[in-house]
Amino acid sequence: MNIDALASAGIQFIILLCALALHEFAHAWVADRRGDPLPRQQGRVTLDPFAHLDPIGSFLIPGVMIFLPVLLGGGMPVALIGWGKPVQVSLPNAKTRMWDDILTTLAGPGMNLLLALGVTVLGGILLGLAAPGSLEVVFSRLIFPALFINLVLVVFNLVPLPPLDGSRVMRYVVGMREETFSLLARNSWWVLLVAINIPEFRQVLGTVVLHCAGPFLWLMERIAVLLA
User: Which of 67, 49, 56 shows the shortest CA–CA distance to 9?
Assistant: First the structure.
């Protein structure tokens, strides 16, 4: 077993758990700010990661995807997919219900986008101030994995398939009734589990993530040049 690869897998797993927990915290925090009492009542307006992590979506499936290739002697996976424990909302304000729901929904991917931006700025600063080649391990094990994991979560969660975040926005765009959406959400987990195991689905997801990463990598390079 390659100990270095196992260590890298462990770091990626920790990064993913943090990204998932902060994603769900953002949902709960925005809902709370929009006047929804339910997330706070259920203890979700907290930075405690264990309040937000799901046994299957945060530990089992990502753990298999990250560690199995290493244990079998292969390389690291191209894309890491996972999800946290869904934040329940009551949307009590009828006048602003649609926008409360949309803003709360987009807060999760928005948090991962902010984390990706933060990692980009940090990477640019390190590149600009450190000696050339002195931080290869830091970038290969921490900066680049953190950037790409958060971008994967942004893209993955915006897929318009219940119960992912993109589906909640989609239902307002197409005018789907709440009853219909709830029915789809209850029966879509198996579709999602099948989809993430289809190589073509993961390949498309990876391609989109690579295109999204371009501007972040460009910004990282620009920051490094300015500080060099």
Answer: 67
